[in-house]
Amino acid sequence: MKTVKLLFPVVALLLVTSCVSVRVVSDYDKEADFNSYKTFAFYKTGIDQVEISDLDKKRILRSIEKELTDRGFVKSENPDLLVNIMTKANKRVDINNNAYFGWGWGFQPWFWGGAPMSTVRTRTEGVLYIDLIDTKQKELVWQGRGTGNLNNNRSIEKKEERIREFVAEIMKEYPPMASAN
User: Fold this and answer.
1) Which of 8, 87, 141, 181 has the smallest set of CB atoms within 10 Å of its CB?
2) pLDDT digit string (tens) for 120-146?
């Protein structure tokens, strides 16, 4: 009984962590002084080139702005950092080859054998890059990338929630831990 009580929280934790919906990777310039950045603006030229709807761009930019202002940044005409975004979408095809075993008349296994069954599922995987560019050095100093399944539903609220989730997960990586000395 003690083993069962211990096993349940471990299995629950594995289920929760295995369902992480946004996988995040970040990279940064080790020479950059992240504590000196206090203001930001959006890099309009780069953002205009992103091939997604203008409404989704607005949603992403609002989410980034919220994350940065929550960290004490101020939007400015003369910023320390320029924020740029890039997106990609990839179609993913998952094929699962499972064997199906049925039982025949009288529940005797030799009446029916296994029949191979395959399931094919397609999904769209999205990638969002958030770049932070030092305006004085004119160099990329930080990049976060989030990858996850896109929810293709018609609910605007769910779409906005998914975008906020992507941005929040990516921005958890900023500022880099190395600069928190």
Assistant:
1) 181
2) 777 778 999 999 999 999 999 999 999
